[in-house]
Amino acid sequence: MTTASKRVLYREIADDIRSQIASGVLSLNDPIPSTSELMKQYGVSTTAARNAVELLRREGLVEGTAGKRVFVIATPKQVEAEQVTVENLAREVGALKTQVHRLAEQQPAEINTRIEELQVQVGRLQADLRHLYDRLGQPYPHGQSAPQSKRRSSGA
Fold first, then answer.
1. Domain tally, the chain
2. Is the pLDDT of residue 2 over 90?
3. Quick one: which of 65, 48, 68 has its CA closest to 3?
4. Which residue among 7, 51, 69, 122 has the highest number of C-beta atoms inside a 10 angstrom radius?
5. What number of other Cβ atoms are within 10 A of residue 51's Cβ?
């Protein structure tokens, strides 16, 4: 038997079991046939039987461990609905990621511009405060006092 025909056989077995689950022949929590039962039923090797079960496991239809029973945990419709939900979530996460990158790129420039505007405003306010303290003849209480030359000129 060629590798290609083994591949087809395990997919055929998986398709058959998937159909049994979809039609209700195998219900949730029912065990699927064991590897040896699949080998006898389909006349295939251990590898083909295990590959079929592994495919169903990857699809999210069955769960179990090798050498133990494997049970039906979902129908193809349930898996498909979950897949759609996961795909939607993946799209939403991708869109959010794009938005975050855009914001991250824009934010520093916006923040820098706003900081510069605020620094100019603070500078003006400090100059106004110094001027007011100067006119009152009092030292500027925050940091350095106004230069003596300014006090003299405003006091004269």
1. 2
2. no
3. 48
4. 51
5. 19
